[in-house]
Design a protein that fits this description.
six-stranded mixed beta sheet, 679 residues, alpha/beta
């Protein structure tokens, strides 16, 4: 419905009907569309001066999904300032936002181009075609693409759109800017679209499109039309082969790849699953075309901020390989803190920015200070280098903005790498609301030149830093933590009936698995404090967990049975089976809970301990005098031998194992001894 109406108005590519019109095929869907339209009509669209759809976009997408994608929208004031600083020749420079979201940067780039064009004497018709030829957007999320395309139309405005003489196609594409689905094939590139199996047990298939077919968008459109027509009319593979003969740029191998793709499309047509594949192919091809044939003058945007530890296993593998290819991977204890934003910046600079072109991204503040970004900051990317020329900082003195402190980094593609500049433009101030406009930001924010923020270094750190260790990774909680089962008048004896301790924060697949139940011997039921168990100078709660340590060593199920601990063995047997079936890790259950020796190092300690929380709005620390208590990985701990705060480094070293306090997620109390003394 909406797609057809826009096409009748001469606007192509705003809404693909075969992908989105399913909504209006349902009666409730049509009612929803009418309700949305009734609210949209309240806006004076001709007077729009900001990306007003970003809030709508955030409300449409589940917060957990936005977290998984690393999406945080950019307020208009910041986007406009970056556009005005980054694009210095708006009438000639080609601009790309490779993670455009709702289209905020596109909106301000178009408005900046239009304002300059009008001052130069351009008419609305020329402005329209300048924008369509020079300002591109890409995003991986289909809802983002719809919103960004509407934002693009709003940025053009009714006067510019009204000047069109024929069809216009919006250059905002759904695709993967990192080109993770572009695979090498016989020294060439090809796009691979994986088709999920229709039924259990069926092997996964893939639609393949060689790069030669994509290099020219007009040729690619003709090829797609041939494949769709042949599929709908039941043509043979020979007919397709005849219609797509080898020609300039496309050899016989490429033709055979397209024929195989047609045969799969034909099968999908028979199975009633043919509706979206040409849409997906068309949009996935755009990033490859931009990177191969139409590199841009300016890349600008806000890339995904996603820590390595939150990625899926498949994405982890591809991102690790990609980062190693650019020589920006930092392994060891920093591996899980690697962030997708650094790779996104590096890859986009390489793929899309022409030599001496520039890139500007909003980045987490950690990109300027933390160890996981150390190689990224050098600008040396295995020969595909950049020179960092400017940095803006928005640390915790700017509120509200992003969930974590941030910065904006500006760099140029060059043969000679250059690290971050020695000084930065620092912002500070309190805004009335996050999506402030530029006028409010100018009024409320102070701007000053400051020295570049110090990079994380522990040369002058507290002497207690090496003493503190991180607690044990007792996850998933349902296999470790417990609730005591009610008992009768006779009590529990030497075994305690228990069931899995559950939490509202559990994730898939653990939250939907049945409880573990058993009766475990008393010595193996111990208090295991969590991050939320600690308040300032006190213990708030004492959750219990199964800790399979017999005073000499940690036990697996088989060893527990051998030593006569029947109850412990039965519990561990269930836990090990559930872990093996549902975990994607290569570690077994015992290795998981004793990662880096975090658990065993605590079981040999006979001292009082100082503990502090890894994160939280209010810093919290206390002394724990009960020697049997265990600490979860959300806590850092160190042994003490008196209330005078005598944290003995030699004693800590005797414990062995455990990850040191690396300072990445939290800071130890600088006056650790004084705090212990106060307790």
């Amino acid at each position: 419905m909406a797609g057809a109406s826009l096409r009748q108005a001469g606007v192509q590519g705003a809404i693909e009907s075969d992908f989105f019109d399913w909504v209006v095929e349902d009666e409730e869907g049509r009612e929803l569309v009418h309700r949305v339209l009734s609210r949209v009509r309240r806006f004076r669209i001709a007077e729009v001066g900001t990306d007003l759809l970003k809030v709508l976009y955030e409300s449409l997408i589940d917060p957990q999904q936005r977290h998984d994608l690393g999406e945080y929208y950019t307020p208009d004031w910041l986007a406009r300032k970056m556009v005005l600083r980054h694009i210095d020749k708006p009438l000639t420079q080609v601009v790309l936002d490779p993670a455009c979201g709702s289209g905020t940067f596109l909106f301000h780039a178009i408005r900046f181009l239009a304002d300059n064009a009008r001052r130069t004497g351009y008419g609305d018709y020329d402005i329209l075609h300048l924008a369509l030829a020079q300002i591109f957007g890409v995003d991986v999320h289909p809802v983002a693409i719809i919103v960004a395309r509407v934002t693009y139309l709003l940025a053009l405005g009714p006067n510019v759109l009204g000047a069109r003489h024929g069809q216009v196609s919006l250059p905002v594409y759904m695709g993967d800017a990192l080109q993770l689905n572009v695979l090498p094939m016989m020294e060439k590139d090809e796009i691979v679209i994986r088709v999920p199996p229709a039924r259990e047990g069926e092997s996964q298939k893939a639609l393949e499109f060689p790069a030669a077919a994509i290099d020219r968008p007009d040729r690619f459109e003709r090829i797609l039309d041939i494949l769709v027509e042949a599929s709908e009319r039941g043509r043979t593979a020979a007919w397709v082969r005849q219609r797509i003969p080898p020609s300039e740029g496309i050899d016989a191998t490429d033709v055979e790849i397209l024929v195989r793709t047609y045969e799969l499309l034909q099968q999908l047509q028979k199975d009633g699953r043919d509706h979206i594949w040409t849409f997906v192919a068309r949009n996935m091809a755009r990033p490859l075309w931009l990177s191969r044939k139409n590199k841009v003058d300016r890349v600008i945007g806000n890339p995904p901020w996603l820590s390595f530890r939150y990625m899926t296993d498949g994405l982890k593998r591809r991102i690790r390989e990609g980062m190693k290819g650019y020589d920006i991977w930092v392994g060891g204890k920093l591996a899980t803190h690697q962030d997708l934003s650094g790779y996104f910046f590096t890859a986009c600079a390489d793929l899309y920015v022409r030599r001496e072109g520039r890139i500007a991204f909003v980045m987490p503040f950690a990109a300027m200070t933390r160890g996981q970004f150390a190689r990224f900051r050098t600008g040396r990317y295995d020969g595909r280098n950049v020179a960092f020329e400017e940095a803006w900082t928005f640390d915790d003195r700017v509120q509200p903005l992003f969930p974590v402190p941030s910065c904006a980094l500006f760099a140029r593609r060059t043969a000679i790498a250059q690290s971050l500049p020695e000084t930065v433009t620092a912002y500070a101030g309190i805004l009335d609301h996050r999506n402030a406009d530029e006028a409010e930001a100018d009024h409320r924010l102070l701007v000053a030149t400051e020295d570049r923020p110090d990079q994380a270094s522990f040369h002058a750190a507290t002497p207690y830093r090496d003493t503190f260790r991180q607690g044990a990774t007792l996850v998933p909680r349902m296999l470790c933590y417990l609730e005591r089962e009610p008992t009768g008048m006779l009590g529990t004896g030497h075994r305690i009936p228990i069931v899995s301790g559950r939490s509202s924060q559990e994730k898939e697949p653990w939250k939907n698995l049945p409880d573990v139940r058993g009766a475990v011997e008393r010595p193996f039921v111990r208090v295991a404090l969590l991050g939320e168990s600690i308040g300032p100078y006190r213990i708030l709660q004492e959750p219990e967990a199964v800790i399979p340590h017999d005073g000499e060593r940690l036990l697996c199920a088989e060893e527990a049975f051998e030593r006569g601990y029947q109850g412990l063995g039965e519990w561990l047997e269930q836990a090990e089976k559930i872990w093996k079936t549902n975990s994607k890790s290569d570690m077994n259950f015992l290795e998981r809970i004793n990662y880096y020796g975090e658990l065993s190092s605590q079981c040999f300690d006979n001292s009082w301990r100082v503990v502090f929380t890894k994160s939280g709005t209010i810093p919290a620390a206390t002394v724990v005098k009960k020697k049997s208590y265990i600490f979860d990985h959300k806590l850092y701990w160190a042994p003490v031998h008196s209330l005078e705060g005598n944290c003995s480094p030699p004693a800590a070293k005797r414990l062995g194992g455990g990850r040191k306090n690396d300072g990445l997620a939290s800071k130890a109390p600088a006056n650790g001894g004084e705090r212990a003394q106060a307790v």
